[in-house]
Amino acid sequence: MLFADTPWPRLFLNTYTNKAHLKQAINSVQRMYGQTNTAGGLRTLRRWMFSEQWGARRDSMKIGVVITDGRSSNGRKKTLHQAKLTRDAGIHLFAIGTVDL
């Protein structure tokens, strides 16, 4: 899933049946530009990306990796709230900060 101004679900867990197709899909993802709506991204991750409808399995570990370019445009309070709800839903979160050089 990508997010900038709004979240955009891009890769679903039940779409790819082999490693080569998944790698191709990952490599085709392009950076989005705009605001950094981290709270919206976390909310969409929790509500949709790990749903059984989109390929999540009940007995599998849920891991979310948030790659962000900076501070959330939603503000710290909203982002922390969504992060807590996501963790409380059993999704393990990892954050990676990036910068343009």
Task: Describe this structure as you would to a colleague.
The chain has 101 residues and is of the alpha+beta class. It is built from three helices and four strands; from the N terminus they run ββααβαβ. It has helices at residues 19-27, 38-49, 76-88, and strands at residues 2-3, 7-8, 62-68, 91-97. The strands form two sheets. The protein has a two-stranded antiparallel ribbon. The longest helix is centred in the C-terminal third of the chain and has 13 residues, at 76-88. It is globular and about 40 Å long. It starts with a strand and ends with a strand.
Walk me through the topology:
Elements: E1 2-3, E2 7-8, H1 19-27, H2 38-49, E3 62-68, H3 76-88, E4 91-97
Helix pairs in contact: 2-3
Strands of the biggest beta sheet: in what spatial order? 1-2
Uncertain regions spanning at least 5 consecutive residues: none
Overall geometry comes to globular
Rg from alpha-carbon coordinates:
14 Å
Mean pLDDT: 86
Structural classification: alpha+beta
Please give the alpha-carbon distance between the first and last residues: 24 Å
Q: How would you describe the oligomerization state of the chains in this entry? A: single chain
What about the largest sheet?
Answer: 2 strands, antiparallel
SSE series = EEHHEHE
Percent helix, as a range, is 25-40%
Question: Would you report the number of β strands?
Answer: 4
Strand content: 15-25%
Q: Number of helical runs?
A: 3
